[in-house]
Input
Amino acid sequence: MSVLVLVLAVCAACCLGFGFVLQQNAAQRAPLGDFLSPRLLLDLVRVPRWLAGMGLMVAGLVLGAIALGGGELTLVEPLLATNLLFALALSRIQTRQPLGRQGWAGLALLAGGVTAFILAGEPRGGSAVTDPLRHWLIVGIMLGLALLLTLCAARLRLTWGPTLLALAAGLVYGVQDALTRVSGRRFSAGGFAEVLTSWQPYAVAVLGITGLVLVQSAFETAPLRRSLPALTAAQPLAGIACGVGFLGDRLRTDAGALAWQASGLAAVVAGIVLLGLHPAMPQGTGESGRERALERS
Output
């Protein structure tokens, strides 16, 4: 296990967490008519706070891609899930809310769950699966589920919409991370020529834009606490499924190790929920007015 990979993944999580908070601060003031439309990005690009958040997000994605180039997806993804800790830290400064029992419990569950999963699973590389059917099956399931969640979110945007959009974005980003890992392997094998003649880097770009529209639409219509936990929980689960499913990542499979891995992932999800619902997380301004506007639109 490379210390450099661990440092890069945690730095990526820090950039992502700070970036998400700044993006949501700006997105909640965007025109409601831009919901699930690429126009939303064109409106937000004129907001300095959103641009700062995007800059941090891009830095996080680059650091995450470098970490994926040197480590397994099953190792990097749980570490990226700690972005919620950094989001809470910045939100706590903004709201001046103490952590309290809920915050400390969420922190302990998230950090402890990530540690338990990594130590019990001992993620390591292996030979990638060459069967294209298996690749497309796993990717198709993830993206098909993301599409279904998005369609449901469009009908339920006053209630479960933001959470469903965030879940969909998490699945999209998990697949994007897997394809980023594939692109990194192709670059190591044949340089830019090998990368540019394959479909994966172009799919990474399309998935990145799609995920961005989903996330900003979720940020636009509800406070951060209703979207970021779902995004943070779905992304590592989708990434781990892709890593084990077709990238050749290997985990320990004896009964004890599997039990600890399952417990670790459950603790991660529980910690994410507790931290996401913490009072320090921004609750938005004028939420009821925005909901009434949505009802009229």
User: Anything to note?
Assistant: The radius of gyration is 19 Å. The longest helix spans residues 161-196.
